[in-house]
Amino acid sequence: MNTDGDLLHTVTADNISDSRKRLGKLIVWSTALCCMMLALLQTMYQAGRIGIGFETWRPILYAYMLWATALCAAQVIVNGEKGKRTLFVLPAALFVVSLVVFPLLFALYISFTDWNLASPNGPQPNGWDNLVQMWNDSFYWNALTNMVYYVLAVCVEYVIAFGLALLLNAQIRARKFFRVVFLLPLMLSPVAVSWMIGKSMLEVRFGPISRIIRDLGGEPTFFGDPEIARFMIMAMDAWTFIPFMMIMLLAGLQALPSEILEASKVDGASGWQSFKEIIFPLMLPVSVTAIVIRIIFKLKLADIIINVTSGGPGGATDSVTSFIFREYRDRSNVGYGTLLAMVYLVLIVIFVTLFLKLVSRWMERPA
Amino acid sequence: MSVIFKDHELGLRVKSKWWASRTAIYLTLLIWAVVCLFPIFWTITTSFKMAPDVMKGNLIPWWDFTPRWKGWESIGLSPRLIGEVSTVREEFFKRFWNSAVVSISASLLAVILGSLAAYGLSRFSYKFGFMKNSDISFFFLSQMILPPVVLALPFLVLYKSLGLLDSRIGLILLYTLMVLPIVIWIMRDQFQGIPIELEEAALVDGLGIWGAFMQIVMPIALPGMVAAFILSLVLCWNEYFFAALLTSTNATTLPVMVASQTGSQGINWWSMAALSSAAILPLVIVAIALEKYIIKGMAAGAVK
């Protein structure tokens, strides 16, 4: 896409008077000042320096919102037509920046403190102690190793999803029915899934699946054995998310140029040949997109683990997110938990960047 | 290739091959349909079972066992109890209402903010400091990578000092942040598909850029917006992690309620099953009714 210059040109004669410009700047600066004054006042109050202040920081939030509104309004007041264009992106940008950047900076600070919500002292900086603790925390490394397994499971999900997409794309009857049915698992909340499958269908005594296994002469253990437990978590997660990849791949299949497929048929290609030589290569960009997004979702995997096994047996099913969740829930260890989360974020960013670099040559769409 | 006659040997071979592939396709489709449907069927039927039915593993209603309202009575939703005052039902509806309010407002907010940003990015070129259009797009989309766990603890502390803990507003803000990148991704694709000439004509006819957006572009992009809205709705409705950390009594959503009941084991499966069914039912209905939009939303961006 051409990014220099607007795609939609507007020609306007903006005659913005100096006083109007001054007014715009004035409201931005005055609201900013107001916000900062209130913040300062509240900090002093919390530190016990002065007697007057607010109960919570809520008024500072309102002042901040006022400043944000003033900033948006000032765009139009100061820049006229150009400001109206900025107004499209500015609200979303302000929203994301204030909800991500501030908390991240804050997280960076708490991750180097020994903050425990249960302790009365509040946060005390403790240098590299948390990092040292993390280095020696075998459970964290274990959780990271598990994440590798979980991410690798995406390959299997991809194969199944591709197969299903091919089937749905074939000449079949009741296509709409199958599409809706196949989509359903994605709609269910992971928490409900963890009860429906993890806690009732896989229940050792009365669950229908245990019953089948017992009828076949086996002895059902689903969450006792580490390997099987991990596989079960993978299967449940796959069950909910295969439709997601399937839909993306199906959309890709339906967008394939039919002339090429017909030409290959005329040339006498068998089904497997036309898949291997034509469909799969043409589907590579869509496949890679689907896999990348699925991996991003997979890296957040937690709900099912928290609700079914809470990491057990012996941390065999722990994902990083569920581990940190328990670190906070059971031990109120905010400082250490945040450090683990920040390290995880850094690892994710590195991993995703490298992965995108690696696959970028397949992501280019053949023109 | 020789002409295929119906009674010729070659013709019969082709035909049997065709039948074999048909059977294989439908068999696979049916097996997967069972895999998808059985957990839902199991949950809904279990909510009508009594303890002995659960233990004997009865599956098919009216044949194996007689459906009873026992499970639904435990959340106060059976025909017998519907007229009476029931605290469990009130509790359930409170959670349901919280879920509905939070997910609908968050999706709405995300669609509004996201559509505006996506439109701006697809039409104009910006320069915020060193950031150009592609950088701004990347900035928005990169939020998708951010794992919730990184934001959870700072938000907990932040909300505590803002007095937003256990409030619906707090959840709405976070959920909006969570689905915003997805909305922008879908909407950018939608807007790129709308020819710029339409807006140019509108501008010539005297509309401003905002007027052109509201009156010309919005109606065309509406199906895409609905798709983005539905997808966000599903994601927000099912969200558990933030809700579990940031709410305790007032603003608790449905998934948190379901999760808090799973801890109490024992064999009162029927009440858990009823609760789970009630929690998944709205989205199952949404999926069946609005399947077209959901698929459209997910397909956007995958294919250009």
Give a description of the structure:
The complex is a heterodimer of chains A (about 375) and B (about 300). Chain A has about 375 residues and is mainly alpha-helical. Chain A folds into 2 domains: about 20-110; about 130-365, MetI-like fold (Orthogonal Bundle), CATH 1.10.3720.10. Chain A has 14 helices and no strands. Chain A is flat and about 75 Å long. Chain B is mostly helical. Chain B folds into 2 domains: about 10-75; about 85-300, MetI-like fold, CATH 1.10.3720.10. In chain B, helix 4 packs parallel to helix 7 (about 170-190), helix 8 (about 195-205) crosses helix 9 and helix 9 packs across helix 13 (about 290-300). The longest helix of chain B is centred in the N-terminal third of the chain and has 38 residues, at about 10-45. The interface between A and B is large, with 105 and 106 residues.
Defining key terms:
heterodimer; A: 367 residues; mainly alpha; 73% helix; 0% strand; flat; B: 304 residues; MetI-like fold
Short recap of the structure:
The complex is a heterodimer of chains A (367) and B (304). With 367 residues, chain A is mostly helical. In chain A, 73% of the residues lie in helices and 0% in strands.
Summed up, the domain count of chain A is 2
What overall form of chain B do the CA principal axes indicate? flat
Q: What is the C-alpha radius of gyration of chain B, as a whole number of Å?
A: 26 Å
Secondary-structure element string of chain B: HHHHHHHHHHHHH
Question: What is the β-strand count of chain A?
Answer: 0
- Tell me roughly what share of residues is in helical segments of chain B: over 70%
What oligomeric assembly is this protein in? Answer: heterodimer
Strand content of chain A: under 5%
User: What is the gyration radius of chain A calculated from CA atoms?
Assistant: 28 Å
Q: Which fold does the CATH topology of the largest domain in chain B refer to?
A: MetI-like fold
Largest interface (CB < 8 Å): A-B, 105 and 106 residues
Q: For this structure, what is the CATH homologous superfamily of the largest domain in chain A?
A: MetI-like
Outline the low-pLDDT stretches of chain A. none
According to CATH, the fold-level topology of the largest domain in chain A is: MetI-like fold
Average pLDDT taken over every residue of chain B: 84
